[in-house]
Design a protein that fits this description.
With 386 residues, the chain is α/β, with parallel strands linked by helices. The protein has helices at 4-16, 24-33, 62-77, 95-107, 109-114, 124-135, 203-210, 230-242, 257-260, 297-306, 317-323, 326-332, 340-354, 374-378; strands at 22-23, 84-89, 115-120, 142-144, 155-162, 171-176, 179-188, 191-197, 224-228, 243-252, 254-255, 271-274, 277-279, 290-292, 295-296, 310-316, 363-369. It contains 14 helices and 17 strands. The two termini are 42 Å apart.
């Protein structure tokens, strides 16, 4: 299944480009984010058991509630500022926002009085889904804004994203004939074809310098393929400029650079999701499938340092959630308060959140800005850095 409209737009874009080719990043941006026919704007994205993929918040309210506990700690560590902003970037179907806001409303009245919750969402289709879901709760502190609506250094609080950065368009590069080159998309008789050419921008080589990776070293084989996420650097720079004081929390699947760019990972990390089936063909199901690449957390940390952000912690989701009380929630299931069917369902969901081979192995990165006192720097319950 492909979107014929999107295919025609893609062909026209390639034909109108100076060299009759576009980067893979340009292709991925069209496939996912075209304003009418891109996957995230198509109106067909369904997150959860019946969709193409599910996230931690699809498993129930525990993930959002545990994040809310972390946000309460952040608010306290910052001296209980009023207002306190939570800025969720890429809110999916709105489940996570709903779980966080309901928990804070029911359990943290003082924080709720100071709270301003902003959603920054690039997809107009998903924005409509979020607004429909969240309208019934009548959260007065909730608003949707664009980046241009948020002034520089206007946010005291926390920017956070769950499984967002993995969906940013990436450049695909390769080691070919002992040179760094890039993967482009061109046409052969109106059929999409990959071609290899010189790097489209010097920023790609600068990125590898940033994370201290040299793909021209002998241990990397010829025809080694991988990805570079320049948009992640731009995204973090934007956030850092908007944040006056507080935190940035990023949860996603990924690796540090030394693991991301292992010589044995010779085909990169690109993967696609279509109706809960994972595969590695980004050109199938055009406009109808998710395309992702793992996150390079070293790049986020190094870029953060360049933007006056301090890395406060980097760990796995399982350890992070256990530190916030997930273990207590598991123990509570044995209290006799729950029906047996609910016990099995919630126990399975909680175990999935901490499974090191699945969601529990996701990376959790917390960065901070202008945290001058020890309470702000060390008051979180995160485990130590990995």
């Amino acid at each position: 299944m492909i979107s014929q409209e999107l295919r025609e737009i893609l062909i026209a874009k390639i034909k109108s480009s100076p060299k009759q080719q576009i980067t893979f990043a340009e292709y991925m941006a069209l496939a996912l984010y075209h304003q009418q026919y891109g996957y995230y704007n198509s109106g067909t994205v369904t997150i959860g058991a019946q969709g193409d993929f599910f996230t931690s918040s699809s498993l129930g309210k525990d993930f959002g509630e545990l994040l809310a506990i972390q946000f309460k700690q952040m608010w306290t560590n910052l001296g209980c500022p009023d207002p306190f902003y939570l800025v969720e970037m890429g809110a999916g179907n709105g489940e996570l926002a709903q779980d966080i806001l309901l928990y804070l409303q029911e359990s943290e009245a003082d924080l709720t009085k100071t709270l301003k919750y902003i959603i920054v969402e690039e997809s107009t289709a998903l924005t409509r889904v979020q607004q429909k879901r969240l309208a019934e709760n009548k959260f007065t502190q909730l608003s949707w804004q664009n980046w241009s609506d948020i002034s520089s250094e206007s946010i005291t609080g926390c920017f956070f994203a769950n499984e967002l950065v993995d969906a940013f368009p990436v450049h695909r590069i390769t080691k070919s004939q002992n040179r760094l080159q890039e993967v482009y998309l061109s046409l052969e008789q109106d059929r999409l074809s990959e071609t290899i050419d010189s790097l489209s921008t010097a920023r790609l080589a600068e990125y590898l310098d940033l994370v201290n990776i040299d793909l021209l070293e002998p241990q990397y084989p010829q025809d080694y393929y991988t990805e570079i996420n320049l948009q992640a650097l731009d995204w973090l720079k934007t956030i850092a400029a908007k944040l006056k004081r507080g935190y940035i929390l990023t949860v996603d699947y990924g690796y540090t650079a030394d693991k991301y760019y292992r010589p044995a990972r010779s085909q990169g990390t690109l993967q696609c999701y279509y109706q809960h089936r994972r595969h590695n063909n980004p050109y199938a199901n055009l406009g109808h499938q998710d395309i992702t690449a793992h996150v390079d957390f070293t790049a986020l940390q190094r870029q953060g340092e360049l933007c006056n952000l301090k890395t406060l912690g980097f760990t796995q989701q399982g350890l992070f959630l256990m530190a916030l009380g997930l273990g207590d929630r598991l123990n509570d299931l044995s209290s006799g308060k729950y029906e047996i069917t609910e016990i099995f369902k919630r126990r399975d969901a909680l175990h999935q959140l901490i499974d090191p081979t699945g969601l529990g192995g996701f990376g959790v990165l917390i960065q901070g800005k202008n945290l001058k006192d020890e309470r702000s720097l060390q008051g979180l319950t995160m485990p130590p850095m990995l």
